[in-house]
Amino acid sequence: MEKICLCPELVWWVIMILLYFTCIVFEIASLSIPRWFSQGSGTYRWEGGLLKPYPSETLYKDKSCDSDFHGSGYCDMFDRLWIGGIVYFVFELISLVVLLLCIIFTILQITGKRAFIPVSAILIWVAVGAHLIGFATWAGLGKMLYKGSCDDFYTSNGDKPGYLCREEGATIGLLIVLYEPVIALLKTILWYNSRKPPVKEVQEVEIKYHNPNENPEMSSRVESSREIVSESIDISK
């Protein structure tokens, strides 16, 4: 059995399948967890999920808001959260599908179809990019704050939404941002080290001789010809 980095290939491919699976579990968990962030303090503190407040069943896009009372920044926050949540949801589904394809292709590699090794090495980076785009869009639109105060619903002049503090969902989303590239890098290293060395074609070197006597093959032919001529002369006599 061939080895990669001092370990049998089969062991590495099984490890990659397990890593893909753990990443899928994390991504499904990020979509399922109801609490992504919190804002405010005391009795005015509220929590929200990816597409709706927690524990409300009203989606952000259906949330009523009086901009004259709350300020345009507070009402604008729900639109931003809805757009960011949809973008994250769509790109996370893309990432999940790609990870499933990576598992399928890795199983095909185990059966001997080595052509799928570079394909899965490319696809895992697609999954990394899809999750990164989704999470960065959500965190940017939602003004996610990982350290600091999130007590204000909007800025002092009321025209911009306030910051949001991360909860379980956003924490898992950030964990995937850090975890998934490690898997992709490991897969790339394994692909690079599993490549077959190119077969070098042995080319016959043509040696040019200025004198036929310098060529051993030609010399033997000349000697044979001389012997035949000598025998012919003897017979004729």
Automatic annotation (TrEMBL):
It comes from the Eukaryota. This is MARVEL domain-containing protein. Keywords: Membrane, Transmembrane, Transmembrane helix. Residues 223-237 have a biased composition (Basic and acidic residues). It comes from Stentor coeruleus. Coiled coil: none annotated. The chain crosses the membrane at residues 12-33, 86-108, 115-139, 170-192. Residues 210-237 are annotated as: Disordered.
